[in-house]
Design a protein that fits this description.
The protein has 2 domains: 54-277, no CATH class; 300-484, no CATH class. The chain has 17 helices and no strands. It is an all-alpha fold.
Length: 484
């Protein structure tokens, strides 16, 4: 009996042990599941979030390029004086647009950081400060351009023929009137991107560019308004886009919205915005001026090289669509991580977004390079210009696969971490020394022409990439904010 009783007790003990282990196993599995869920919840952006942010940005960048090409074709029908005046003023307009875009970027970094820190009230307050500040600055710029239109054009372009000057003045005045609307539009679009909602910005961009193209066709081909027919639709389309986005931003269901409280100027918030916006604006402005100087260098090489350079620039912009879109996403994503004070996620999303840039940009570039002979036939260039355009595209896109993301996507990670002065100094130095300086050395002194100018651009990329990667690896960017 004692033996049977002891055996019975051992059986019961075993059963209890198995049950206990089973319970522990369930608890352990639940623990692993909970840990996985916690990690999932802790991540600020899911794959679906990134797709929703990046895909509309890709379409938006593609739309801008396509509309730009369509605008150029329609403007060319107005006459040589008109297209000359428009092309000259567009160089100035691009300068202003890039500066306003930099200001919007500064605001989106600040609001993204506030969102990451779960400070919705501060994010909304910074949004109002951004829009008002950008509006005031753009109104001042508009007044200066309208009052000093002729001296400014003489300063930028020297002595030009009177009919070209007349066209340029008309286009400049109407374009300047659109600057405040453009500033509001860019700021609102940047704020929606900071919320991860780029679908809205794409839809409004589609509306804006649709109005612009339809307006150009009506004003140029039907109403025969000349240069004004090119400028007025741009003014109207920017005004409509600014009003639509501004109204949408007043929705309190948004993570960032414009409340109806009385506006109070907050110097501390504006200072934070300008701390990022001013260096970025200077950097963008110098970059645009550098591009103008580079084009002026190429213009001295003759008609064939000018034509080949123009075609190559069009095709190269297509190859950069992915990088341009993800560089905008980088600001919003990393800004949110900085606000959360999470260094691990900053590094994780930096690598992830760079990896996506390399993967998808490479796919686009490979398609362009493999179909390049057929694409070039569309432009109807001469044999010499076609061959040169082929060489330039090969130089640009072949190198862009390796260097472009590190040169232009990675620095947006640094900007989102408030490391803006470093990116400004590196970019300006590299533009002046390598892109402009070596363009003169290779292109003019070594008589390499446009090819020499584009090789100088590669030196610029290589220099920028090495310094930005070094900055990232060292972790110096962490000084711009506190890790929780």
């Amino acid at each position: 009996m004692a033996g049977h009783e002891g055996q019975h007790q051992r059986i019961i003990y075993r059963e209890e042990s198995v049950a206990a282990l089973s319970d522990q196993g369930c608890c352990f599995m639940d623990f692993l599941k909970n840990q996985k869920e916690r990690r999932k919840i802790a991540m600020l952006f899911s794959k679906e979030d990134l797709r929703k942010l990046i895909i509309p940005l890709l379409f938006e960048q593609a739309l801008v390029i396509c509309v730009g090409m369509a605008d150029t074709m329609m403007v060319s029908s107005v006459g040589e004086a008109a297209i000359s005046g428009v092309s000259l003023v567009d160089m100035v307009n691009n300068l202003i647009i890039s500066v306003l875009a930099a200001l919007a970027t500064g605001g989106s970094v600040v609001t993204s950081q506030y969102l990451g820190a779960d400070r919705r009230d501060k994010a909304c307050a910074s949004a109002r400060q951004l829009i008002v500040s950008a509006g005031v600055i753009s109104v001042v710029v508009t007044a200066v351009f309208i009052l000093l239109k002729t001296p400014l054009l003489r300063l930028f372009f020297g002595s030009i023929e009177q009919d070209v000057m007349d066209s340029a003045i008309t286009y400049l005045v109407i374009s300047a009137l659109s600057f405040p609307f453009l500033a509001v539009y860019q700021c609102c679009a940047a704020l929606f991107r900071a919320m991860g909602n780029s679908k809205i910005t794409f839809q409004v961009s589609l509306l804006m560019n649709g109005i612009n193209i339809a307006g150009n066709a009506l004003c140029i081909f039907v109403l025969h308004m000349g240069v004004a027919g090119v400028a007025v639709p741009s003014l109207i389309s920017r005004a409509v886009a600014a009003v639509v986005l501004y109204i949408l931003l007043k929705n309190p269901n948004n993570a960032i919205y414009l409340n109806r409280e009385k506006f109070h100027f907050e110097p501390a918030v504006v200072k934070r915005i300008l701390y990022i916006g001013i260096p970025s604006g200077i950097e963008n402005g110098i970059f645009q001026l550098g591009r103008v100087l580079v084009v002026s260098i190429i213009s001295g090489f003759g008609t064939v090289q000018i034509a080949a350079n123009g075609v190559a620039n069009n095709l190269d912009s297509v190859g950069c669509i992915v990088g341009q879109a993800i560089s905008l996403a980088m600001i919003s994503v990393i800004g949110r991580c900085v606000g959360a004070g999470d260094e691990n996620q900053i590094r994780y999303y930096t690598k992830k977004l760079l990896g996506m840039t390399y993967l998808y940009a490479t796919a686009v570039i490979v398609v362009i390079l493999t179909t390049l002979p057929w694409i070039l036939k569309i432009y109807n260039l001469g044999e010499e210009a076609t061959h040169l355009a082929w060489q330039l595209v090969m130089i640009h896109n072949g190198s862009a696969i390796f260097l472009w993301p590190l040169s232009f996507v990675l620095p947006n990670m640094l900007r989102a971490c408030n490391d803006v002065r470093y990116t400004m100094v590196v970019s300006i130095f590299s533009m002046i020394v390598f892109r402009i300086g070596f363009s003169v050395v290779f292109g003019i002194h070594m008589q390499m022409g446009a090819i020499g100018v584009w090789l100088a651009m590669l030196l610029d990329w290589a220099f920028r990439s090495s310094l930005f990667v070094g900055r990232y690896v060292k972790g110096t960017w962490k000084k711009g904010y506190r890790i929780k």
